[in-house]
């Protein structure tokens, strides 16, 4: 291990959100991955999606006492394009904001597949093998030498994650830290794969065990959590029967009612009108609203005249937002809705209009 290089790549956030959009349910019946998927979709929402370490700890807690391997909702789509991700929760890879070195990334026809990203001292990026040998990596307050899966796991468990995203990889403190190292390049939180979540979520969170090889395919096309290995994941043949974890999340209610009636319905029959606090929540909800019978659906946004601001019905202020261009004007009698097509952005609508709506179950 090298001397620690302390970084402060993430300024304190003025808005901390702890809302959870779903709950996990361990099912002790033995089923194949596809059978488990059908079971979860019929009785709950879907097989479990995991977006961050907090989710993973909740999943383990809900499965307390079980030492079995259980299917989760991640499956290898071998015919899909390998997609680049940042490993840090909530940071989306943007093809228009990249800093690849000349000739990178590559698509080798022979030799080791290069599925993980490194960053050079000049802040340019390249693809690299994930675990052929150990390389230095950067968390938020230290650098060590480990293979990429080990490095990502170490950072997510002990800090937040590997350095991720355009702004973080161009932070002046990162430049200073890299200049102090003898290595030419270090692992960053950049990787690509063909794994996809059952519910369509684009969550980039991965917690593979140390035996999983990100540079090889077809070792098993479905993912499971191994509870006696701290919940870390491994892959297996999808036809094997084992327990599984579902999640209960949001529900689209295809009734056309005004905002207040939608609010009371959700509180009487579920939990509340849905609160959206990050891009993962947004993606989950926009998949649901595609099946709506109205142009808009009510979500849990309302305008508070006294405080001249928009809030969620959960009493949280709006930190993450997806308003249409320019955002909403602050008008009395207006509440928030989501477009059911297009970009699925948020709009203000008169609360006496009648739309479908989204309830949260948790």
TrEMBL record:
Ranges for domain C-type lectin: 24-132, 139-247, 246-360
Keyword tags: Disulfide bond
PROSITE patterns according to UniProt: C_TYPE_LECTIN_1, C_TYPE_LECTIN_2
Signal peptide, first to last residue: none
Domain of life: Eukaryota
Protein name per Swiss-Prot or TrEMBL: C-type lectin domain-containing protein
Organism the protein comes from: Nothobranchius furzeri
